[in-house]
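Lecture notes, part 5. Sequence design as translation. It can be helpful to think of inverse folding as translation between two languages: the language of shapes and the language of residues. The source text, in structure tokens, appears below.
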């Protein structure tokens, strides 16, 4: 029997929930000078979520799978895979991002 406070989280969904529960608010660290707004950079997201994910044995494998340009609007299609390093179990999802900043 595990000692109190040392219980291990099992299952990829439980591990993901535990990791997300440890993530604080992610600050807006970038500024778009042209349109005068603040945004959260991909680097800041990575910096904040990396530790909790790794602590629970999870890694995220992103892959850009497409890009389209329509005038000034660009759309990127991503494939994300979250893997439990202990069991090999994974979750996969498609994600899209858009931007039209100069």
């Amino acid at each position: 029997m595990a000692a109190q406070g040392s219980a291990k989280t099992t299952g990829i969904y439980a591990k993901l929930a535990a990791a997300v529960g440890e993530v604080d608010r992610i600050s807006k660290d970038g500024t778009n000078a042209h349109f005068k707004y603040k945004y959260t950079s991909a680097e800041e997201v990575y910096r904040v979520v990396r530790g909790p994910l790794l602590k629970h044995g999870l890694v995220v494998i992103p892959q850009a799978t497409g890009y389209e340009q329509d005038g000034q609007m660009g759309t990127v299609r991503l494939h994300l895979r979250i893997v439990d390093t202990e069991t090999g179990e994974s979750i996969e999802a498609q994600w899209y991002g858009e931007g039209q900043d100069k």
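The translated text above is only one of many valid answers, since several sequences can fold into similar shapes. DSSP finds two helices and five strands in the chain.
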